[in-house]
């Protein structure tokens, strides 16, 4: 297996030789999503370029073989899929064709044992880097202390998760993007759209550190702003409907952190909340697509694309330790029109608000 320091030195040498001739990046993109079933065939692909750059300007491996990039997800859901697609599309748009860079995508299907097996396989495999979508896969890779660099996508609390000590100074062979949830802004949105909501239900999974941290921020906000809150926690998706039901009769609204377990059961939460005439404020646009009432969202594809740019920086010769992790800010208000009408709430159309309807 090519070790991380060898990859970096090779990439840096290529960059130095080609500095005067690098072409601009192409603007087109490929929306094709690679999957685990086609990985074996894709892995046989080899670059026809013997070092240097591709026609579009991307730095290609000196040995003529394609870069191999692993991508790990804990579960399949709309948000994570969009992040992965944004990551891959950005690589393709910047000139890394399928013959120059092979994607090996694997999903743990929500199983922690599967996740550990996948991470161990990628840590011990011939990968130039591994992209991890959200917190659990990132922790799984970083905890192995592998020489394979990790680019994480949308880890809400990287320091609390133990995958980096300082955002500006990556120290665990991992860097990437954080989608820190704007808790205060989301609660301010609830005050604007549903001002009578004074008691909030907090619904989250205790095994996801990102969810726990966001829930703690929500509690703090409520305490500082005279709001009441009640918690309903779960350990797996089979408990979500009952937990949501336990809140329905005693709260005015529900807040859900960025939680993959809850997200996987959002249609059930939507059913309970609409029946009880309770608005749900989510932490992603995908939750709103799945029936939550509203949120202030980060573009999932954009955060994937920004993570890909960091991967490109590494492949071009920059050490992981010299690529600071970044927080991608929330950029738009999203309201589910179907839920709005079901709850009898009126939201005026104005700049900065995007209306969606149920996708699930």
From TrEMBL:
SUPFAM superfamilies reported for this sequence: Periplasmic binding protein-like I
Biased composition, class Polar residues, residue ranges: 27-44
Record-linked Pfam families: ABC_sub_bind (PF04392)
Annotated transmembrane regions: none
Record region (Disordered): 27-57
Secretion signal span: 1-23
InterPro entries, A to Z: ABC_transpt-TYRBP-like (IPR007487), Peripla_BP_I (IPR028082)
Domain of life: Bacteria
Cross-referenced Gene3D superfamilies: 3.40.50.2300
Keywords: Signal
Protein name: ABC transporter substrate-binding protein
Organism: Brotaphodocola catenula
Phylogenetic classification of the source organism: Bacteria, Bacillati, Bacillota, Clostridia, Lachnospirales
């Amino acid at each position: 297996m090519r070790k991380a320091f060898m990859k970096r030195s090779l990439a840096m040498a290529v960059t130095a030789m080609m500095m005067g001739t690098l072409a601009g990046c192409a603007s087109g993109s490929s929306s094709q999503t690679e999957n685990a079933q086609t990985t074996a065939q894709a892995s046989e692909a080899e670059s026809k370029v013997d070092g240097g750059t591709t026609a579009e300007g991307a730095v290609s491996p000196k040995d003529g073989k394609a870069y191999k990039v692993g991508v790990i997800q804990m579960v399949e859901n709309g948000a994570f899929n969009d992040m992965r697609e944004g990551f891959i599309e950005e690589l393709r748009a910047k000139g890394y064709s399928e013959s120059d860079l092979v994607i090996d995508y694997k999903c743990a299907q929500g199983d922690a044992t599967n996740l550990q097996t996948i991470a161990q396989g990628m840590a011990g495999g011939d990968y130039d880097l591994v992209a991890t979508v959200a917190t659990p896969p990132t922790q799984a890779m970083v905890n192995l202390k592998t020489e394979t660099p990790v680019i994480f996508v949308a880890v809400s609390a990287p320091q609390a998760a133990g995958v980096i000590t300082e955002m500006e100074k990556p120290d665990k062979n991992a860097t990437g993007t954080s989608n820190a949830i704007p808790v205060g802004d989301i609660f301010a949105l609830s005050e604007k759209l549903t001002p009578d909501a004074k008691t909030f239900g907090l619904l989250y999974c205790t095994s996801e550190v990102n969810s726990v941290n966001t829930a703690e921020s929500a509690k703090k906000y409520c305490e500082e702003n005279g709001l009441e809150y009640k918690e309903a926690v779960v350990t797996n998706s089979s408990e979500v409907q009952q937990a949501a039901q336990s809140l329905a009769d005693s709260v005015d609204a529900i807040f859900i952190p960025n939680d993959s377990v809850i997200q996987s059961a959002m249609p059930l939460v939507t059913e309970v909340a609409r029946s009880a005439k309770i608005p749900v404020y989510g932490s992603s646009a995908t939750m709103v697509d799945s029936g939550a009432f509203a949120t202030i969202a980060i573009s999932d594809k954009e955060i994937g694309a920004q993570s890909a740019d960091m991967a490109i920086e590494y492949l071009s010769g920059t050490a992981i330790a010299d690529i600071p992790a970044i927080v991608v800010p929330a950029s738009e208000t999203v309201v589910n029109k179907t839920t709005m009408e079901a709850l009898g709430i009126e939201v005026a159309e104005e700049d900065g608000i995007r209306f969606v309807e149920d996708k699930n």
